[in-house]
Design goal:
With about 550 residues, the chain is an alpha/beta fold. It contains 16 helices and 16 strands. The protein folds into 2 domains: about 1-175, Chitobiase, domain 2; about 180-500, Alpha-Beta Barrel (TIM Barrel). Helix 2 packs parallel to helix 3, helix 4 (about 195-205) runs parallel beside helix 6 (about 250-265) and helix 8 runs parallel beside helix 9. The structure holds acetamide.
Protein backbone atom coordinates (compact mmCIF):
# COMPACT_ATOMS: atom_id res chain seq x y z
CA UNK A 1 0.00 0.00 0.00
CA UNK A 2 2.71 2.41 1.10
CA UNK A 3 4.82 1.46 -1.90
CA UNK A 4 2.01 2.00 -4.36
CA UNK A 5 1.36 5.48 -2.96
CA UNK A 6 5.01 6.30 -3.42
CA UNK A 7 5.01 4.85 -6.94
CA UNK A 8 1.94 6.84 -7.83
CA UNK A 9 3.49 10.02 -6.43
CA UNK A 10 6.67 9.39 -8.38
CA UNK A 11 4.70 8.79 -11.56
CA UNK A 12 2.83 12.02 -11.08
CA UNK A 13 6.12 13.80 -10.52
CA UNK A 14 7.64 12.23 -13.57
CA UNK A 15 4.71 13.12 -15.80
CA UNK A 16 4.79 16.59 -14.33
CA UNK A 17 8.49 16.88 -15.12
CA UNK A 18 7.86 15.72 -18.68
CA UNK A 19 5.16 18.30 -19.12
CA UNK A 20 7.50 20.94 -17.77
CA UNK A 21 10.23 19.74 -20.11
CA UNK A 22 7.82 20.16 -23.06
CA UNK A 23 7.05 23.67 -21.90
CA UNK A 24 10.77 24.32 -21.60
CA UNK A 25 11.20 23.19 -25.19
CA UNK A 26 8.45 25.55 -26.23
CA UNK A 27 9.96 28.42 -24.25
CA UNK A 28 13.38 27.87 -25.73
CA UNK A 29 11.91 28.55 -29.14
CA UNK A 30 10.80 32.06 -28.27
CA UNK A 31 11.88 34.30 -31.08
CA UNK A 32 12.46 37.75 -29.71
CA UNK A 33 12.57 40.59 -32.18
CA UNK A 34 16.11 42.00 -32.41
CA UNK A 35 17.08 44.43 -29.67
CA UNK A 36 19.67 47.14 -29.21
CA UNK A 37 20.81 47.66 -25.66
CA UNK A 38 22.69 50.79 -26.72
CA UNK A 39 19.41 52.46 -27.72
CA UNK A 40 17.66 51.92 -24.40
CA UNK A 41 16.53 55.06 -22.58
CA UNK A 42 18.86 54.72 -19.61
CA UNK A 43 19.42 57.74 -17.36
CA UNK A 44 22.09 58.34 -16.24
CA UNK A 45 23.93 57.06 -19.29
CA UNK A 46 26.23 54.17 -18.30
CA UNK A 47 29.96 54.30 -18.91
CA UNK A 48 29.97 51.56 -21.56
CA UNK A 49 27.24 49.54 -23.25
CA UNK A 50 27.89 46.60 -25.60
CA UNK A 51 24.74 45.26 -27.27
CA UNK A 52 24.40 41.63 -28.36
CA UNK A 53 20.97 42.05 -30.00
CA UNK A 54 19.11 39.18 -28.37
CA UNK A 55 16.90 39.27 -25.29
CA UNK A 56 16.36 37.90 -21.81
CA UNK A 57 12.69 37.08 -21.22
CA UNK A 58 11.53 38.15 -17.79
CA UNK A 59 8.50 36.03 -16.91
CA UNK A 60 7.00 33.81 -14.24
CA UNK A 61 9.76 31.25 -14.80
CA UNK A 62 12.42 33.73 -13.67
CA UNK A 63 14.06 33.72 -10.23
CA UNK A 64 16.51 35.99 -8.45
CA UNK A 65 19.50 34.57 -6.60
CA UNK A 66 22.11 36.59 -4.75
CA UNK A 67 25.36 36.22 -2.88
CA UNK A 68 24.22 35.37 0.62
CA UNK A 69 27.35 35.49 2.74
CA UNK A 70 27.80 39.25 2.42
CA UNK A 71 25.33 41.59 4.03
CA UNK A 72 23.04 43.57 1.78
CA UNK A 73 23.01 41.49 -1.40
CA UNK A 74 19.85 39.51 -0.65
CA UNK A 75 18.13 42.78 0.38
CA UNK A 76 19.06 44.28 -2.99
CA UNK A 77 17.57 41.17 -4.65
CA UNK A 78 14.40 41.59 -2.63
CA UNK A 79 14.27 45.30 -3.52
CA UNK A 80 14.35 44.33 -7.21
CA UNK A 81 11.66 41.69 -6.71
CA UNK A 82 9.42 44.22 -4.93
CA UNK A 83 9.83 46.74 -7.75
CA UNK A 84 9.07 44.06 -10.37
CA UNK A 85 5.95 43.14 -8.42
CA UNK A 86 4.63 46.70 -8.31
CA UNK A 87 5.58 47.47 -11.90
CA UNK A 88 4.47 44.24 -13.60
CA UNK A 89 2.40 42.40 -10.99
CA UNK A 90 4.86 39.52 -11.41
CA UNK A 91 6.16 37.45 -8.50
CA UNK A 92 9.85 36.65 -8.76
CA UNK A 93 11.25 34.51 -5.92
CA UNK A 94 14.48 35.61 -4.22
CA UNK A 95 16.86 32.89 -3.00
CA UNK A 96 13.83 30.68 -2.58
CA UNK A 97 12.06 27.63 -3.92
CA UNK A 98 9.63 28.42 -6.67
CA UNK A 99 6.19 26.90 -7.37
CA UNK A 100 7.03 26.76 -11.05
CA UNK A 101 10.10 25.44 -12.87
CA UNK A 102 12.78 28.09 -13.15
CA UNK A 103 14.05 28.74 -16.64
CA UNK A 104 16.03 31.93 -16.28
CA UNK A 105 17.84 33.55 -13.43
CA UNK A 106 18.97 36.98 -12.36
CA UNK A 107 22.09 36.52 -10.26
CA UNK A 108 23.29 39.39 -8.08
CA UNK A 109 26.86 38.54 -7.32
CA UNK A 110 29.56 39.93 -5.08
CA UNK A 111 32.60 39.96 -7.33
CA UNK A 112 36.04 41.23 -6.42
CA UNK A 113 37.56 42.05 -9.77
CA UNK A 114 40.00 44.81 -10.53
CA UNK A 115 37.54 46.78 -12.63
CA UNK A 116 35.13 46.86 -9.71
CA UNK A 117 37.42 48.64 -7.29
CA UNK A 118 35.07 51.61 -6.94
CA UNK A 119 32.32 50.78 -4.46
CA UNK A 120 29.50 51.95 -6.74
CA UNK A 121 30.79 50.22 -9.88
CA UNK A 122 28.83 47.35 -11.37
CA UNK A 123 28.72 45.17 -14.46
CA UNK A 124 25.62 43.71 -16.05
CA UNK A 125 25.86 40.70 -18.36
CA UNK A 126 22.51 40.04 -20.00
CA UNK A 127 22.10 36.89 -22.10
CA UNK A 128 19.08 34.87 -23.21
CA UNK A 129 19.28 32.66 -20.13
CA UNK A 130 20.61 34.80 -17.37
CA UNK A 131 21.33 38.24 -16.07
CA UNK A 132 24.50 38.47 -14.05
CA UNK A 133 25.01 41.61 -11.98
CA UNK A 134 28.50 41.89 -10.54
CA UNK A 135 29.60 44.38 -7.94
CA UNK A 136 32.10 44.35 -5.11
CA UNK A 137 29.54 45.93 -2.74
CA UNK A 138 25.81 45.78 -2.13
CA UNK A 139 25.77 49.52 -2.87
CA UNK A 140 27.16 48.93 -6.36
CA UNK A 141 24.62 46.15 -6.83
CA UNK A 142 21.89 48.59 -5.80
CA UNK A 143 23.00 51.08 -8.47
CA UNK A 144 23.02 48.25 -11.01
CA UNK A 145 19.50 47.27 -10.03
CA UNK A 146 18.31 50.76 -11.01
CA UNK A 147 19.73 50.20 -14.50
CA UNK A 148 17.96 46.87 -14.69
CA UNK A 149 14.66 48.42 -13.57
CA UNK A 150 14.96 50.94 -16.39
CA UNK A 151 15.50 48.12 -18.90
CA UNK A 152 12.31 46.28 -17.97
CA UNK A 153 9.63 47.38 -20.41
CA UNK A 154 6.42 48.83 -19.00
CA UNK A 155 4.39 46.55 -21.31
CA UNK A 156 4.66 42.78 -21.65
CA UNK A 157 4.86 41.11 -25.04
CA UNK A 158 1.91 38.73 -25.10
CA UNK A 159 2.48 37.26 -28.56
CA UNK A 160 5.81 35.54 -27.92
CA UNK A 161 4.69 32.84 -25.50
CA UNK A 162 1.67 31.64 -23.57
CA UNK A 163 2.77 33.50 -20.50
CA UNK A 164 3.30 37.25 -20.29
CA UNK A 165 6.91 38.02 -21.02
CA UNK A 166 8.97 41.21 -20.74
CA UNK A 167 12.00 41.15 -23.09
CA UNK A 168 15.17 42.78 -21.76
CA UNK A 169 17.77 43.57 -24.45
CA UNK A 170 20.92 41.49 -24.16
CA UNK A 171 24.48 42.79 -23.90
CA UNK A 172 26.98 44.06 -21.40
CA UNK A 173 27.04 47.21 -19.31
CA UNK A 174 30.11 48.44 -17.47
CA UNK A 175 29.36 51.34 -15.21
CA UNK A 176 30.93 53.56 -12.61
CA UNK A 177 30.01 57.09 -11.46
CA UNK A 178 31.99 60.15 -12.45
CA UNK A 179 31.26 61.83 -9.09
CA UNK A 180 30.76 59.92 -5.84
CA UNK A 181 28.54 62.72 -4.45
CA UNK A 182 25.29 63.20 -6.41
CA UNK A 183 22.77 65.15 -4.46
CA UNK A 184 19.63 67.14 -4.10
CA UNK A 185 18.57 69.38 -1.23
CA UNK A 186 15.05 69.85 0.08
CA UNK A 187 14.13 72.93 2.11
CA UNK A 188 11.60 71.73 4.68
CA UNK A 189 11.93 74.99 6.62
CA UNK A 190 10.16 77.57 4.42
CA UNK A 191 7.36 75.07 3.91
CA UNK A 192 7.28 71.80 5.77
CA UNK A 193 7.10 68.48 3.91
CA UNK A 194 5.98 65.24 5.52
CA UNK A 195 7.97 62.03 6.04
CA UNK A 196 5.87 60.46 3.25
CA UNK A 197 6.75 63.31 0.86
CA UNK A 198 10.45 62.94 1.65
CA UNK A 199 10.26 59.18 1.12
CA UNK A 200 8.66 59.64 -2.27
CA UNK A 201 11.41 62.08 -3.23
CA UNK A 202 13.97 59.47 -2.13
CA UNK A 203 12.24 56.80 -4.28
CA UNK A 204 12.44 59.02 -7.33
CA UNK A 205 15.99 60.27 -6.79
CA UNK A 206 17.40 56.81 -6.16
CA UNK A 207 15.87 55.48 -9.39
CA UNK A 208 18.27 57.90 -11.10
CA UNK A 209 21.22 56.90 -8.86
CA UNK A 210 21.29 60.11 -6.80
CA UNK A 211 22.90 59.18 -3.49
CA UNK A 212 22.71 62.26 -1.25
CA UNK A 213 19.69 64.07 0.19
CA UNK A 214 20.51 67.26 2.07
CA UNK A 215 17.69 68.41 4.35
CA UNK A 216 17.56 72.14 5.11
CA UNK A 217 16.05 71.73 8.58
CA UNK A 218 15.99 75.27 9.95
CA UNK A 219 15.54 78.80 8.71
CA UNK A 220 13.95 82.09 9.67
CA UNK A 221 10.46 80.70 9.05
CA UNK A 222 10.72 77.38 10.84
CA UNK A 223 12.70 74.90 12.93
CA UNK A 224 11.86 71.40 11.71
CA UNK A 225 13.66 68.86 13.87
CA UNK A 226 12.99 67.90 17.46
CA UNK A 227 15.86 68.72 19.82
CA UNK A 228 15.07 67.02 23.12
CA UNK A 229 17.19 69.38 25.23
CA UNK A 230 15.60 72.47 23.66
CA UNK A 231 11.90 71.59 23.14
CA UNK A 232 10.67 75.09 22.32
CA UNK A 233 12.56 75.02 19.04
CA UNK A 234 9.81 72.90 17.54
CA UNK A 235 6.95 73.91 19.88
CA UNK A 236 7.37 77.57 18.93
CA UNK A 237 9.84 77.64 16.05
CA UNK A 238 8.10 74.83 14.19
CA UNK A 239 4.60 76.26 14.53
CA UNK A 240 4.34 78.17 11.28
CA UNK A 241 5.78 78.52 7.77
CA UNK A 242 5.82 80.87 4.79
CA UNK A 243 2.29 82.12 4.21
CA UNK A 244 1.19 81.44 7.81
CA UNK A 245 0.10 77.80 7.61
CA UNK A 246 0.70 75.49 10.57
CA UNK A 247 4.25 74.40 9.70
CA UNK A 248 5.36 71.20 11.42
CA UNK A 249 8.51 69.32 12.31
CA UNK A 250 10.14 65.90 12.31
CA UNK A 251 10.34 64.15 15.66
CA UNK A 252 13.65 62.38 16.11
CA UNK A 253 11.77 59.13 15.38
CA UNK A 254 10.52 60.64 12.09
CA UNK A 255 14.04 61.70 11.19
CA UNK A 256 15.39 58.23 12.01
CA UNK A 257 12.70 56.77 9.76
CA UNK A 258 13.87 59.01 6.90
CA UNK A 259 17.51 58.11 7.55
CA UNK A 260 16.68 54.38 7.56
CA UNK A 261 14.62 54.69 4.38
CA UNK A 262 17.45 56.59 2.71
CA UNK A 263 19.95 53.94 3.85
CA UNK A 264 17.84 51.24 2.23
CA UNK A 265 18.30 53.24 -0.99
CA UNK A 266 22.03 53.70 -0.35
CA UNK A 267 21.44 57.40 0.12
CA UNK A 268 23.19 59.61 2.67
CA UNK A 269 21.14 62.18 4.57
CA UNK A 270 22.92 65.47 5.30
CA UNK A 271 21.23 67.52 8.04
CA UNK A 272 21.57 71.30 7.83
CA UNK A 273 21.06 73.72 10.69
CA UNK A 274 21.55 77.11 9.06
CA UNK A 275 23.46 79.63 11.23
CA UNK A 276 24.44 82.25 12.33
CA UNK A 277 21.97 83.90 9.92
CA UNK A 278 18.62 82.36 8.90
CA UNK A 279 17.97 81.81 12.61
CA UNK A 280 14.84 83.80 13.39
CA UNK A 281 12.76 80.71 14.28
CA UNK A 282 15.42 79.56 16.78
CA UNK A 283 15.67 83.02 18.34
CA UNK A 284 11.89 83.33 18.71
CA UNK A 285 11.96 80.03 20.59
CA UNK A 286 14.93 81.05 22.79
CA UNK A 287 15.47 84.83 22.64
CA UNK A 288 18.90 84.66 24.34
CA UNK A 289 20.23 83.32 21.00
CA UNK A 290 19.32 86.49 19.18
CA UNK A 291 22.03 88.89 18.12
CA UNK A 292 20.31 91.40 15.86
CA UNK A 293 19.12 93.70 18.66
CA UNK A 294 15.41 93.34 17.85
CA UNK A 295 12.68 91.37 19.62
CA UNK A 296 12.22 88.33 17.43
CA UNK A 297 8.70 87.43 16.24
CA UNK A 298 7.55 84.46 14.17
CA UNK A 299 8.18 85.23 10.52
CA UNK A 300 6.06 84.05 7.60
CA UNK A 301 7.54 86.12 4.78
CA UNK A 302 10.37 85.39 2.37
CA UNK A 303 13.00 88.06 3.03
CA UNK A 304 16.51 86.86 3.87
CA UNK A 305 19.52 88.23 5.73
CA UNK A 306 17.89 89.91 8.75
CA UNK A 307 18.63 87.46 11.56
CA UNK A 308 21.76 86.39 13.41
CA UNK A 309 22.78 84.47 16.48
CA UNK A 310 24.69 86.38 19.13
CA UNK A 311 28.17 85.12 18.25
CA UNK A 312 29.78 86.45 21.45
CA UNK A 313 27.87 84.37 24.03
CA UNK A 314 29.19 81.07 25.40
CA UNK A 315 25.60 79.96 25.99
CA UNK A 316 24.98 80.16 22.25
CA UNK A 317 27.80 77.69 21.62
CA UNK A 318 26.53 75.44 24.43
CA UNK A 319 23.16 75.45 22.65
CA UNK A 320 24.79 74.65 19.29
CA UNK A 321 26.74 71.83 20.93
CA UNK A 322 23.49 70.23 22.09
CA UNK A 323 21.88 70.63 18.69
CA UNK A 324 24.84 69.19 16.78
CA UNK A 325 25.23 66.37 19.32
CA UNK A 326 21.58 65.29 19.18
CA UNK A 327 21.35 65.41 15.40
CA UNK A 328 24.75 63.78 14.85
CA UNK A 329 23.76 60.91 17.13
CA UNK A 330 20.93 59.96 14.76
CA UNK A 331 22.79 60.72 11.52
CA UNK A 332 24.98 57.85 10.32
CA UNK A 333 26.38 59.83 7.35
CA UNK A 334 29.72 61.64 7.71
CA UNK A 335 28.48 65.23 7.20
CA UNK A 336 26.89 68.06 9.19
CA UNK A 337 25.89 71.21 7.27
CA UNK A 338 26.07 74.47 9.24
CA UNK A 339 24.57 76.77 6.60
CA UNK A 340 26.54 79.99 6.93
CA UNK A 341 24.91 81.79 3.99
CA UNK A 342 23.59 85.33 3.83
CA UNK A 343 24.54 86.38 7.37
CA UNK A 344 24.12 89.98 6.31
CA UNK A 345 23.62 91.36 9.82
CA UNK A 346 26.53 89.47 11.40
CA UNK A 347 29.74 91.51 11.44
CA UNK A 348 32.41 89.91 9.25
CA UNK A 349 34.81 89.29 12.16
CA UNK A 350 31.99 87.80 14.25
CA UNK A 351 30.99 85.55 11.39
CA UNK A 352 34.55 84.26 11.04
CA UNK A 353 34.85 83.67 14.80
CA UNK A 354 31.51 81.85 14.76
CA UNK A 355 32.30 79.53 11.86
CA UNK A 356 35.64 78.57 13.38
CA UNK A 357 34.01 77.74 16.73
CA UNK A 358 31.18 75.77 15.16
CA UNK A 359 33.60 73.80 12.98
CA UNK A 360 35.23 72.51 16.20
CA UNK A 361 31.83 71.53 17.60
CA UNK A 362 30.95 69.62 14.43
CA UNK A 363 34.29 67.83 14.50
CA UNK A 364 33.90 67.02 18.20
CA UNK A 365 30.70 65.16 17.33
CA UNK A 366 32.49 63.13 14.68
CA UNK A 367 31.22 64.90 11.57
CA UNK A 368 32.75 66.69 8.64
CA UNK A 369 31.50 70.26 8.29
CA UNK A 370 29.81 71.51 5.14
CA UNK A 371 28.78 75.13 4.73
CA UNK A 372 27.56 77.43 1.95
CA UNK A 373 30.41 79.12 0.10
CA UNK A 374 30.67 82.08 2.52
CA UNK A 375 32.31 79.86 5.17
CA UNK A 376 35.59 79.84 3.21
CA UNK A 377 36.41 83.32 4.54
CA UNK A 378 37.02 81.72 7.97
CA UNK A 379 40.20 79.94 8.91
CA UNK A 380 38.87 76.42 8.65
CA UNK A 381 40.23 72.96 8.02
CA UNK A 382 40.88 71.43 4.61
CA UNK A 383 38.55 68.58 5.56
CA UNK A 384 35.58 70.97 5.71
CA UNK A 385 33.57 71.36 2.53
CA UNK A 386 32.35 74.47 0.75
CA UNK A 387 29.07 74.38 -1.15
CA UNK A 388 29.39 76.77 -4.06
CA UNK A 389 26.08 78.51 -4.69
CA UNK A 390 26.94 82.08 -5.68
CA UNK A 391 30.51 83.30 -5.32
CA UNK A 392 33.42 82.23 -7.49
CA UNK A 393 35.71 84.24 -5.17
CA UNK A 394 34.58 82.17 -2.22
CA UNK A 395 35.14 78.99 -4.22
CA UNK A 396 38.71 80.11 -4.92
CA UNK A 397 39.26 80.80 -1.20
CA UNK A 398 38.08 77.28 -0.41
CA UNK A 399 40.44 75.82 -3.01
CA UNK A 400 43.37 77.74 -1.52
CA UNK A 401 42.60 76.09 1.81
CA UNK A 402 42.63 72.68 0.14
CA UNK A 403 38.90 72.21 0.75
CA UNK A 404 36.63 70.22 -1.48
CA UNK A 405 33.74 71.97 -3.20
CA UNK A 406 30.17 70.83 -3.86
CA UNK A 407 28.88 72.43 -7.04
CA UNK A 408 25.45 74.02 -6.62
CA UNK A 409 25.72 77.23 -8.66
CA UNK A 410 22.31 78.89 -8.35
CA UNK A 411 22.10 79.92 -11.99
CA UNK A 412 22.59 76.31 -13.09
CA UNK A 413 21.38 73.96 -10.35
CA UNK A 414 18.76 75.73 -8.23
CA UNK A 415 15.59 73.71 -8.68
CA UNK A 416 13.48 76.58 -7.36
CA UNK A 417 14.41 78.77 -10.31
CA UNK A 418 11.53 79.09 -12.78
CA UNK A 419 11.75 77.31 -16.13
CA UNK A 420 10.60 80.47 -17.90
CA UNK A 421 8.32 83.48 -17.44
CA UNK A 422 5.24 81.23 -17.54
CA UNK A 423 6.29 78.93 -14.70
CA UNK A 424 3.59 78.38 -12.08
CA UNK A 425 6.03 78.22 -9.16
CA UNK A 426 9.54 79.30 -8.37
CA UNK A 427 11.67 82.43 -8.43
CA UNK A 428 14.09 83.84 -10.98
CA UNK A 429 16.63 85.94 -9.07
CA UNK A 430 19.52 83.78 -10.32
CA UNK A 431 18.17 82.82 -13.74
CA UNK A 432 15.37 81.17 -15.61
CA UNK A 433 16.51 77.58 -15.96
CA UNK A 434 14.78 75.69 -18.75
CA UNK A 435 15.37 71.93 -18.97
CA UNK A 436 18.14 72.22 -21.56
CA UNK A 437 20.01 74.97 -19.72
CA UNK A 438 19.96 72.83 -16.55
CA UNK A 439 21.68 70.03 -18.48
CA UNK A 440 23.99 71.79 -20.89
CA UNK A 441 27.03 72.76 -18.83
CA UNK A 442 30.13 70.97 -17.67
CA UNK A 443 30.61 70.54 -13.91
CA UNK A 444 34.06 69.07 -14.56
CA UNK A 445 35.17 72.43 -15.94
CA UNK A 446 33.05 74.86 -13.99
CA UNK A 447 34.82 78.19 -13.44
CA UNK A 448 38.23 76.58 -13.40
CA UNK A 449 37.60 74.46 -10.30
CA UNK A 450 39.80 71.40 -10.80
CA UNK A 451 38.04 68.07 -11.04
CA UNK A 452 39.98 66.64 -8.09
CA UNK A 453 38.60 69.41 -5.84
CA UNK A 454 34.98 68.75 -6.78
CA UNK A 455 33.22 66.45 -4.35
CA UNK A 456 30.14 66.36 -6.55
CA UNK A 457 27.03 68.16 -7.75
CA UNK A 458 23.94 68.99 -5.72
CA UNK A 459 20.66 70.51 -6.90
CA UNK A 460 18.94 72.44 -4.08
CA UNK A 461 15.18 72.91 -3.95
CA UNK A 462 14.20 75.91 -1.83
CA UNK A 463 10.57 75.99 -0.83
CA UNK A 464 9.47 79.62 -0.54
CA UNK A 465 7.00 79.15 -3.43
CA UNK A 466 6.02 75.49 -3.03
CA UNK A 467 3.91 73.99 -0.26
CA UNK A 468 3.00 70.46 -1.32
CA UNK A 469 4.48 67.47 -3.11
CA UNK A 470 2.83 68.27 -6.46
CA UNK A 471 4.52 71.67 -6.49
CA UNK A 472 7.79 70.14 -5.35
CA UNK A 473 7.62 67.70 -8.26
CA UNK A 474 6.78 70.47 -10.73
CA UNK A 475 10.07 72.23 -9.94
CA UNK A 476 12.27 69.17 -9.40
CA UNK A 477 11.13 67.12 -12.39
CA UNK A 478 12.35 66.79 -15.01
CA UNK A 479 15.43 68.91 -14.20
CA UNK A 480 16.78 66.76 -11.36
CA UNK A 481 16.94 63.82 -13.79
CA UNK A 482 19.43 65.86 -15.82
CA UNK A 483 21.53 66.54 -12.73
CA UNK A 484 21.71 62.81 -12.09
CA UNK A 485 23.33 62.37 -15.50
CA UNK A 486 25.59 65.42 -15.05
CA UNK A 487 27.00 63.88 -11.90
CA UNK A 488 27.04 60.17 -12.79
CA UNK A 489 27.99 60.09 -16.49
CA UNK A 490 31.26 61.21 -18.00
CA UNK A 491 31.33 64.25 -20.27
CA UNK A 492 31.94 62.16 -23.41
CA UNK A 493 28.68 60.31 -22.75
CA UNK A 494 26.55 63.42 -22.35
CA UNK A 495 24.73 65.02 -25.23
CA UNK A 496 21.56 67.13 -25.08
CA UNK A 497 19.97 65.81 -28.29
CA UNK A 498 20.46 62.24 -27.12
CA UNK A 499 19.47 63.00 -23.52
CA UNK A 500 16.26 64.70 -24.52
CA UNK A 501 14.98 61.56 -26.25
CA UNK A 502 15.83 59.43 -23.23
CA UNK A 503 14.18 62.02 -20.99
CA UNK A 504 11.02 61.98 -23.12
CA UNK A 505 10.85 58.26 -22.47
CA UNK A 506 10.76 58.73 -18.70
CA UNK A 507 7.11 59.80 -18.96
CA UNK A 508 5.63 56.31 -18.38
CA UNK A 509 7.70 55.88 -15.21
CA UNK A 510 6.93 59.39 -13.95
CA UNK A 511 3.23 58.97 -14.70
CA UNK A 512 3.10 55.57 -13.02
CA UNK A 513 4.73 57.17 -9.97
CA UNK A 514 2.14 59.99 -10.10
CA UNK A 515 4.86 62.61 -10.48
CA UNK A 516 3.42 65.99 -11.49
CA UNK A 517 6.46 66.92 -13.55
CA UNK A 518 6.62 70.03 -15.67
CA UNK A 519 5.93 68.78 -19.21
CA UNK A 520 8.35 71.19 -20.84
CA UNK A 521 7.45 71.84 -24.50
CA UNK A 522 11.15 71.41 -25.33
CA UNK A 523 10.68 67.67 -24.82
CA UNK A 524 8.60 65.43 -27.07
CA UNK A 525 7.14 63.44 -24.18
CA UNK A 526 6.27 59.84 -24.80
CA UNK A 527 2.60 59.02 -24.27
CA UNK A 528 2.00 56.53 -21.51
CA UNK A 529 -0.90 54.28 -20.63
CA UNK A 530 -1.03 55.49 -17.05
CA UNK A 531 -3.28 58.20 -15.84
CA UNK A 532 -2.83 59.77 -12.47
CA UNK A 533 -5.81 57.80 -11.16
CA UNK A 534 -4.51 54.31 -11.95
CA UNK A 535 -1.26 54.72 -10.14
CA UNK A 536 0.54 51.88 -8.45
CA UNK A 537 2.99 53.14 -5.90
CA UNK A 538 6.48 52.01 -6.84
C1 LIG B 1 21.42 80.21 -0.49
O1 LIG B 1 20.78 80.09 -1.56
N1 LIG B 1 21.17 81.22 0.31
C2 LIG B 1 22.44 79.24 -0.12
Amino acid sequence: MFKSVVTRALTVLYVGALLVACQVEKKKRINFPPTDLAKENLIPKPLKVVPTNKAFGLDRYTAIYTTQDTQGFSEVGQFLADKIKTKLDLDVPVNAESDVPIERIIYINKADSLELDSHEAYQLYITQDSILLNSSTAEGAFRGIQTLRQLIPEESNDTLAEQRIWPIPSGKIFDNPNFGFRGSMLDVARHFFSVEDVKKYIDLLSYYKINVLHLHLSDDQGWRIEIKSWPKLTEIGGSTEVGGEAGGFFTQEDYKEIVAYAAKHYMTIIPEIDMPGHTNAASVSYPFLNGNGKTPKLYEGTRVGFSTFDTAKDTVYAFIDDVVREISAITPGPYFHIGGDESHVTKKKDFIYFVEKVEKIVQKHGKRMIGWDEIASANIDSTSISQYWSSGDNAQKALKKGMKVILSPAKKTYLDMQYDTLSKHGLHWAAYIPVDSAYVWTPEEYEGIPMESILGVEAPLWSETISNIDELEYLAFPRVIGYSELSWSIKENRDWENFKVRLANQAPYLDRMDVKYYASPRIDWKKSKYTYKEIQKD
